[in-house]
Every structure is written in C-alpha cells, then in structure tokens.
Amino acid sequence: MISACGRRPIMAVLAAGVLTGRAMRAWSESTFPMKPVRILVGFAPGGFTDYCAIIPGASGVVGAGLARYLAAHRDWRVIGLARRAPRERLEYPVISVDLTDAAACRARLGGLTGVTHVLYCARAAHAAPVKEPIDVNVAMLRNVLDAVEPAAGGSEHVHILQGSKVYGSDLGPYKTPAKESDARVAENNWYYAQEDLLIERSRGKRWSWSASRPHAVTEREPGIARSIAKLIAVYAAISKELGEPLCFPGTAGSFNALYQCVDITLLARAIAWISTAPACANQAFNVTNGDFIRWANLWPSFAQFFGMHVGPVKTVCLAEAMADKAPVWDRIVRKHGLRRTPYDKATVWSYGDFNFRRGYDVMSCTLKLRQAGFGDCLDTGRMFLEHFAHFRQQHVIPRAARAASIVRTHGGVGMKKTFIAPPMLMPAVFMSQSSGTADYPERNQTDCC
Ligand SMILES: NC(=O)c1ccc[n+]([C@@H]2O[C@H](COP(=O)([O-])OP(=O)(O)OC[C@H]3O[C@@H](n4cnc5c(N)ncnc54)[C@H](OP(=O)(O)O)[C@@H]3O)[C@@H](O)[C@H]2O)c1
C-alpha cells in the first residue's frame, strides 16, 4: 500500500521491498520526470553531496513542511512516510506504512538502500489532555530504525523532533530562557525516551543523531489547519463578520507573557543544517525565530491588518466558544468567494487554547544553534502579517474591506473610495550571518515566508 503520487503499479513494487539502487532510480525517473529520486551516497561526479532522506510523519505539520522544503532543494531527495496518502500531488513519493507495525516497516522500508538521513517527524496520535504515549512513540522510531538501518549501509544521521515540553513548558512556570544544557524535568516524556534510544543505538555506529526543539510551529500553507497564524486569521474573520472587535481570546497572563514561535521554513532550514553539520552531531538544539513576543504588543497590528478595532482580553475556551460558528464561517466563504474550506478543516480551536492560556513565559535560548553556525532568524510580528497576507492572496480569508477614507486629491482634501491599507509589509526575509543559508541555495526564491 504505497502511495507515490497515486501510481499504484509502483506501490506493489515498493511494498515488496525490492526497490533498490538502479531499480529505484529507473522507477523514480519514470515516475517523477521533473525531479527524479536519485539515490546517491557520498560524492556525486559533480562534486556535491547528495542526500536521501526518509521523513516519517510526512503528512504532519512539521513533516509536510520539511519535505516540501527539502524536495525543492537540489541536494536532497525525499521519501515521505505516513499512514494516510496525501491528497495533493507531491514532488516526492510517500510510502504508506503504519509505524507501529514492525513487520510492515521491514517489508516496506527494508529495500531502501540509499537512505542517508532519517528525519523523524512522526508522533503517535493523541488527544489533549492525555499525555503523549511514551512506549508507542519509542516503538515507532525503533521500528523505522530496525527496518532502515540494515539496508541503508550509507546512513549518516537520524534527526528527531522534540519541543519545549522537554523543559516542562507544559507543566507550569519553568526556568527561562530554557537552555539545552538544563537538567531534565522529573516527569518522564517520549522526547527523553527517543533521545535515549538514539544515544544507545548510535554507540559504535557510523551514523550520528541530533534533535531540534521548536515551539509553536507556524505555517502559511492554506491546507494546514494547526497553525497559529491560520487560527488567528479565521478567528478574526469570524469576529469581524459578527461585528465584534479583535479580542484576545486567551488569558490576560498569556496576553502579557513572553512567547515564541518558529516559522516552518526556518525550522526546515535548521533541521537540514543541524543534520548535516558535523559540529552538531549527537546534540539537541532549540530552534525558534530567535525573538520573543508578547501577544499584547502584536495584537494592535493584527487588528489593523484585518481592519478591526482592538478589543479587550476576552478569555474563552475557543474549542467551546467557536464550536457553533460553522454557519458564520460558511457565510463568510460564500460572501467573499473564498476557497471552500469546511469549518472543521479551517483551524484547530483547541490548539489556540493550548497556545493562548499558559499565563507564563515560554522562552528557549537559541544561542547554542547560533554559536554552532546557524544564524537564520525572523521577526515574528512580521512573519504573522506576511502569513495573513498570504491567506488573503490564497482566498482563505476575506480581502481588505473597501472603506471611505480621506485622501489628498489634486484640488485639496476630498473623499475617495479606497482600500484600507494594511501595515506596510516588507518581505520577512531570513536574516542570516551563517553559512547555513548559503549552503542551501534554493531552486527558487519563493520559500521565504
Ligand atoms: N506542531 C508544532 O507546533 C510542534 C511544536 C514543537 C514540537 N513539535 C514536534 O514536531 C514533531 C512533529 O509534530 P507535528 O505537530 O508535525 O505532528 P502531527 O502534525 O501530529 O503529525 C504526526 C505525523 O505522524 C504520522 N503518524 C502518526 N501515527 C503514525 C503511525 N502509526 N504510522 C505512521 N505515521 C504515523 C502522521 O501521519 P498519519 O496520521 O497519516 O499516519 C503525521 O504525518 C513532534 O515531535 C512534535 O513534538 C511540533
């Protein structure tokens, strides 16, 4: 049951686990004429290193963004793993496999001889407030390693995703800014268990491991529902339709506390860099945009962007308060000719409750990553405004409303129909002092958020 851009004959071949070397190349060149999956290890004749990454969790928020980024990069070949086949046509193959099933992993991944990197972005399904299961998450990672390691003789690196929960950020106020060298918290979690598995398993091997620790990964792809930018944009559209100002729906404590986010493309660049920089081997790195925000400081610019007044903090449980707003959303979609996004796919309200109700500072220090040589950073306020502008351009949320405004005309001051101007948007380019950016030239320039 392999999904490779919906080409079923290929599925059977891959499922049999016999697709190796030349066969893989021949298959990929006929399947993806625009971008063949070349399985090369070490140095190609042209003198550049060519990596082949499998990305478990390729349909998730982080995995999809990472796969999209690497697939557009000439040094990387990507194979995604997930249970569900993606609906859209992708530039890389996705193998459908249940990572909890060791036999299925061996059968479907055992033939992938050219894998150099496992960039592990999967996480077992869970529903808050239930803790993410440790044993299932560790078993999933182990099953991937058991299947890939014997076949991929040239494997170089395994990268896992962690998060600021590694510092206990979900347990209550904690020591901030959190550093990678901080002691583990008393409560066990799956991040520690996966890291311990890699430490143990990589001992004496030629491959190394690393971990990234992002927080509040933010996406601008319209299809990704679990993104704070999308949540705020949909919330603003509904509030405006109801004639309400833009109130902060979380707690006053969260409104004023320090917080952090990371843009998915910056995170993808960091993961690629960490996973290939020898100096980063066998270590973990915090990865955020590099600045700290207070929602209280950003909210007025958000309201201005959406053409709304700033309202007071109005603490609600979004999952409950927004549960009955589907008719409002459908009305907005019809009225503004937006792309048809079912309400339950538009955003994940409980994710807003998770992000807006902490009431204490959430801060990770990113000095270690910068001192290791990766200097990309991003202005988080501008990132949000750019994501909102992208949603408008993609017809995900309404365009700016027409309004009467005073403008200076040739004859003096007059009334004229015009658009309310959003705050000036400069491209939120990655500021980098590192070789991290230069090492990864893009096929095009559009992936900066
Ligand atoms: N999102 C964030 O804001 C954020 C912040 C900090 C850290 N992180 C870390 O980033 C990592 C990825 O998080 P995420 O938010 O991107 O996760 P996610 O969106 O929930 O995606 C999870 C992925 O795992 C796959 N998966 C789950 N069970 C599977 C199974 N049995 N077999 C095969 N695939 C399975 C899912 O695909 P199928 O369901 O199709 O199988 C999906 O692709 C995690 O380590 C997380 O802690 C994320």
Outline the structure in words:
The chain has 449 residues and is α/β, with parallel strands linked by helices. The chain has two domains: 8-213 and 266-287, 3-Layer(aba) Sandwich (Rossmann fold); 228-261 and 292-419, 3-Layer(aba) Sandwich (Rossmann fold), CATH 3.40.50. It is 37% helix and 14% strand. Strands 3-2-1-4-5-6-10 form a seven-stranded parallel β-sheet, sandwiched between helices. Strands 7-9 form a two-stranded parallel ribbon. α3 crosses α9 (264-276) and α10 (295-306) packs parallel to α16. The chain is globular. The structure holds NADP nicotinamide-adenine-dinucleotide phosphate. The site of NADP nicotinamide-adenine-dinucleotide phosphate has 25 residues, from α3.
Which keywords apply here?
binds NADP nicotinamide-adenine-dinucleotide phosphate; Rossmann fold; 14% strand; seven-stranded parallel sheet; alpha/beta; 449 residues
The tally of strands reads 13
**What would you report as the Rg, rounded to the nearest angstrom?**
23 Å
Helix count? 17
- Note poorly predicted spans: 1-48, 403-429, 431-449
Strand content: 5-15%
User: Mind summarizing the main beta sheet?
Assistant: 7 strands, parallel
CATH class of the largest domain: Alpha Beta
Estimate the mean pLDDT confidence. 82
Ends distance: 35 Å
Q: SS-based structural class? A: alpha/beta
Helix content: 25-40%
CATH architecture annotation of the largest domain? 3-Layer(aba) Sandwich
Number of domains: 2
Shape: globular
Q: Can you write the helix and strand succession as a string?
A: HHEHEEHEHEHEEHEHEHEHEHHHHHHEEH
- CATH topology title of the largest domain: Rossmann fold
How do the strands line up in the largest sheet?
A: 3-2-1-4-5-6-10
Q: Which ligands are bound?
A: NADP nicotinamide-adenine-dinucleotide phosphate
Give the full name of the CATH homologous superfamily of the largest domain: NAD(P)-binding Rossmann-like Domain
